[in-house]
Specification:
Strand order of the largest sheet: 5-4-1-9-10-11
Shape: globular
Radius of gyration: 18 Å
Largest sheet: 6 strands, parallel
Distance between the termini: 39 Å
Number of helices: 8
Number of strands: 11
């Protein structure tokens, strides 16, 4: 994909979200489970090697995740982020594979790690929307490839990186929420933000220090995101009226 040309814009907001936002809607994270699912390590259920070794286990894992995601509801953080579109040009860049941002009302969402509601052909790469439906062994794409989850597994290249980086580089405001900034290369996107940007990081804890230039709010996404959004909407209204 051709990268978006980065042009600084005072009305541009980029939100970079991680699993902590979805966790507040009841979706478990790998970290919470100690990196295990029914005694399988993440390498067994989220890697090309695991897929080749036992694809049926991988499909079961993602079928369960897809069902849980479909049952989950957007929370106050998702809804507040969507509300920003009332006054700003907003792009959500997310590491999450659920569709809670979209269901909350966000209209421009880049999923750098893939999407549960899509499947793709193992060899063809042909994507198709499946919603909450499970994927079964023997279920093929139109070109005859076994369907697999449309998820970026460990060892695979993330999606939309150049486009996401260009959006971050053109943002006047950057909100980072629900991520410990420990999963690379996606975490490196925050370093593309202009020095002049208003940068806010919301997380109860981090694996290291907050990136330089960020205001770090130590708290839950559902509590802190609405506060930041209200502040930015008020500032946007004030600046529009002057």
């Amino acid at each position: 994909m051709t990268p978006v040309k980065a042009v600084p814009s005072p009305r541009k907001i980029v939100v970079f979200s991680g699993s902590g936002v979805s966790a507040e809607s009841g979706l478990p994270t790998f970290r919470e489970a100690g990196g295990l699912w029914r005694q399988y390590a993440w390498e067994e259920v989220a890697s090309p090697q695991g897929w080749q070794k036992h694809p049926e286990v991988v499909l079961e894992f993602y079928n369960e995740r897809r069902r849980l995601a479909a049952d989950a509801q957007p929370n106050a953080a998702h809804r507040a982020i969507a509300e920003l579109e009332r006054d700003f040009d907003v792009v959500v860049v997310t590491q999450n594979v659920d569709d809670l941002h979209e269901r909350a009302g966000s209209t421009r969402v880049l999923h750098v790690h893939g999407e549960l509601v899509f499947a793709k052909g193992e060899h063809s790469g042909l994507r198709q929307r499946i919603g909450a439906a499970p994927i079964r062994m023997g279920q093929l794409c139109p070109q005859g490839s076994q369907l697999r989850p449309d998820i970026v597994w460990f060892g695979e290249s993330i999606e939309h990186y150049d486009e996401a980086q260009a959006h971050v580089a053109s943002a006047a405001r950057l909100l980072v929420v629900g991520t410990s900034l420990s999963v690379f290369p996606a975490a490196s996107l925050v370093h593309a933000a202009p020095a002049s940007a208003d940068k806010v990081l919301i997380a109860p804890e981090l694996d290291g220090a907050a990136p330089q230039g960020f205001e770090w709010l130590r708290g839950k996404a559902t509590e802190c995101v609405p506060q930041v959004v209200a502040r930015w909407l008020e500032a946007g209204t004030t600046s529009a009226g002057t």
